[in-house]
Amino acid sequence: MKPTIDLPASEPPLYQLIQPRSAQVLGPAWARSFPEHSEVVGYSSLGHVFMRKPASREYLVLHPLKGAAKSYGSYRSLAAFERGVLQDPGFAAFVLRPDHVRVVARRLGPLAEESVYIPTPYPFLGGSDTPDSYEQGNVWVFVQTVARLSGL
Hints:
- By secondary structure, this protein is of the alpha+beta class.
- It contains five helices and seven strands, in the order E-H-E-E-E-E-H-H-H-E-E-H.
- The strands form two sheets. Strands 1-2-3-4-5 form a five-stranded antiparallel beta sheet, covered by helices on one side. The protein has a two-stranded antiparallel ribbon with strand order 6-7.
- Strand 3 and strand 4 (58-63) form a beta hairpin.
């Protein structure tokens, strides 16, 4: 078990918005699963991926460990999606899980660039989702590995 790390007084980030990238960064399985949502615009600290359909600006959130995604409708801009969805208290409590991230971050430290906190082993392979089961890993490797292991 890793020792607890003293974090700065500020809260650990719950998500990262990025310059839009091709959904191919997620690997072929996820890109095939959501072909119209061809842009990735961010990810949560727990590995959820924010995707966008360029033509209609419809956003969805991919839940890799559950093999599912949920559409959140169209927004004029990424900033509007952030205000309307990512900063919504209900979304934060259910998906972003600030209390959980805080405990994991205290144990593992701040996330490296393009990294997320990952439960190991994955819950769908019999692992738990307890804070002490997490490690840091690259977000793109994580989503591609989940796709392969889940048979997508």
